[in-house]
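Technical note accompanying the year-one report. For the benefit of new consortium partners, we illustrate the data format agreed upon in the data management plan: each record pairs a sequence with a structure-token string. No post-processing was applied to the example shown here.
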Amino acid sequence: MKKVIAASLVLVMLFSALALVSCGNKESEDLTNIDGYVAPSYKKDIGTGIITFADGAGETAIITNYEPKVYTPHEVVIPAKVGAGDDRTVTAIGDEAFKACAAMKSVNIPETVTSIGKAAFYGCDSLAQINLPASVKTIGELAFAACKSVTKVVAADGSALLEIGKNAFDGCVALEEFNLPAKLTTIGEGAFRNCEKLAKVEIPASVKEIGNQAYVGCSALNYEGGVVLTDKIEDLGGFDPDAKNPAVVVIFEVNKEFIVAPENSYAAKFVAAMRDVED
């Protein structure tokens, strides 16, 4: 009986170890869904693990997969240049490239990266803070979803970020702060859903569109001034204030009197049509 138990414990430890080191895009042989893809190319040892790259358009490169070499929590430093003689610039982090990398506690994204792909860092349980370089323009669907330890997202000064994709930070239950940059135009559907510790949302004047359920489940916003909107917003989940019976769209799961919106603005009409939630 003791031998059976011991054998079972060994198997559990083995599978746990594999969970720590086995992450990223498991379908690296088929990368044609990655924007700018040209051809598979090479791997690079960065000390903590092996990064796989694909050649992009021109003299660029796309990260497609990461295989950790260590079991303990570690920082991943993504190189800005790769290839023979470092002749290619890393401009994109591809779909699922670092997905479920449980041991990655931090990541250094170079200032050459302009896009972060779908589910690129999905389920990276140990990731505590996300620092976005000013170069990043788009964050893809589910890019950082289910990163349950992330407490803060920092967009660098002069950030070029334009779009936060659908469910990009969904389920980041520890997230408390994200300084939305001044050039941001779109916050996708469910982008911050279930970020239950997010305590303040100030929408910059550049934002034109916020998707349905973008902040549903963000219970810490339910206080006066917890959400601040502007008169520049044109689309809140497709809400049409001129419709005979406007559809009720749920974006902020807070009492409407707590939301600040300019008088007579589209945002104010949306707030007026909101249904209150229970305190």
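Partners are asked to follow this layout when depositing records. The radius of gyration is 21 Å.
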